[in-house]
Amino acid sequence: MLKSFDKNADVNEIVEALKTDGGVIVKNLVDKELLDTVKADFRPQFDEAGDYIENDFNGYKTKRLETVLGISRSAADLLAHPLIMKVADKVLKPYCSNYRIGSSSGIEIWPGEMAQVLHRDDEIYPHRMPGVEFQVAALWAMDEFTIENGATHVIPGSHKWTDEEAAGAKREDTVQAVMSRGSVLLYFGTTVHGGGENRSDKPRCALVTTYSLGWLRQEENHYMAIPKEVAESYPEHIQQLMGFASYSRILGTYPGSPIAKEIS
Ligand SMILES: O=C(O)CCC(=O)C(=O)O
Ligand SMILES: [Fe+2]
User: Fold this and answer.
1) Which of 23, 74, 183, 228 is most buried, by CB atoms within 10 Å?
2) Number of domain units in the chain
3) Is 143 within a domain?
4) Does 211 score more than 90 pLDDT?
5) Which residue is closest in CA terms to ligand 1's atom 1?
6) Which range of residues forms the domain containing residue 104?
7) Nearest bound ligand to CA 120?
8) How far, in Å, from the CA of 195 to the mean position of ligand 1?
9) Residue of the nearest CA to atom 10 in ligand 1?
10) Per-residue model confidence (pLDDT) at position 244
C-alpha cells in the first residue's frame, strides 16, 4: 500500500514517503466545488474531441484532453496548488532553478476499458541521470478512485529500478491508488504505473499534471496550444509554469522575454 497523508501533514514527511516508495497519496486536498467546476469545463472537450488520441497506450474507451490550462481556468487551482508546488520544489529544485508543467491531461476511463500498459512517464526522455528525478506528477482523483473503476496502478519502489527491471514490470507487483474524490496521488517520472481497468458502470476521471526540470523540453507545447491572450490573462506564476519565461535568461528566450522567478 502507498502511504497516505492528511492535507495538513508536514510536507517534508510527504516528500520523504515519496522518495522511499515512489508514490504517495494526500487525502481530500481540495473541495468538491472546485472539482465540479473543472469537470464541467472538461465536459465539452471530452465529448467533442476526447477520442482523438485513442491508441494502444491511451486506450480505446478512454477520453483524453491536453494542455488543460487552455480548457479550464479553474484547473489552475489544482495545477498550482500550494502543496503540489512545495513538493515539486523539494523534488526538482535541487536540479534546476525553476520547473515547468510537462504535460497536463484530463483522463476519463470509461467502463470496459482495459488496464493501461505499465510505464514510466520519463520514457519520453531518451536518457536518465541516476539519482536525478526529471519529473514529479500530481494525479488528482476527480471522481472517487476505486479498485473497480480503474484507480491508478503503482509499483512501490520501482523508481529505483533499472530500465530493464521497469520493462519487465508485472501487474501483480502493483498497488492501486484507491482514494477519495479531491485526493491526489504524487509520483515520480521514474515510478512504474498505469491507469486501471474500469469494471464499474461509470467513468473514472483524473487530472494528471507532470512538472519537469526547467531545462528539459516540455512534453506539451503550451506556446502553440494556448493562445497568447489566454496565456497572458493568467497570473505570472501560472504563465511561468506554462513555460512563458526563460530559464536562467538563456533557454527559451525571445525579445523582451521575462526571466523565471521563484514560484513558491
Ligand atoms: O489514468 C491513469 O490513472 C494514469 C494515466 C497515465 O499514467 C498516463 O497516461 O501516462
Ligand atoms: Fe503515466
Assistant:
1) 23
2) 1
3) yes
4) yes
5) 195
6) 4-242
7) 2
8) 5
9) 121
10) 87
